[in-house]
Amino acid sequence: MNQVGEAVVGDAIENLKNAVMEAVDSAGASLGTLWVNVGTPDLTQSSRVDTTADPQQAVSGVLSYVMWIGLAVGVIRLIIISVKLGLHLNPRD
Question: What would the pLDDT profile of 11-48 be if each residue is shown by its tens digit?
């Protein structure tokens, strides 16, 4: 009877692990391809940037946004990889 219970619980845990790993893979792929759907900012006709100002300021503003977005994506991906690694190195296997 004990073996049947362990088999049922083991199968449920294995199914949960597979579902989480599939979700993590899907989320990683979505984050990795997000740049395809994001439009390119118009540096010449933006209402936030003065057109008489130095274009270097506009590029600097865009790069500051890119830096924070890249940092956020990197941290999220690092967390996802850590969870994936933790599930993969299950000591019950």
Answer: 788 888 888 888 888 888 887 777 667 777 776 765 55
**Rounded Cα distance, 12 and 7, in Å:** 9
Structure tokens that stand for 5 in this block: 């219970």
Q: Look at residues 38, 34, 25 and name the one whose alpha carbon lies nearest to residue 87.
A: 25
Please state, in angstroms and rounded to a whole number, the distance separating the CA atoms of residues 14 and 7.
Answer: 10
Cβ–Cβ < 8 Å for 53, 8:
no
Q: Is the pTM of this model over 0.85?
A: no
- Tell me which long-range contacts 45-53 makes (C-beta under 8 A, separation of at least 24): none
- The torsion angles phi and psi of 29, rounded to 5 degrees, stand at -65, -40
Q: Are 81 and 2 in contact (CB under 8 A)?
A: no
Longest dimension (CA), the chain: 80
Spatial contact of 87 and 20, defined as CB atoms under 8 Å apart: yes
Kindly state the tokens that stand for 82: 């850590």
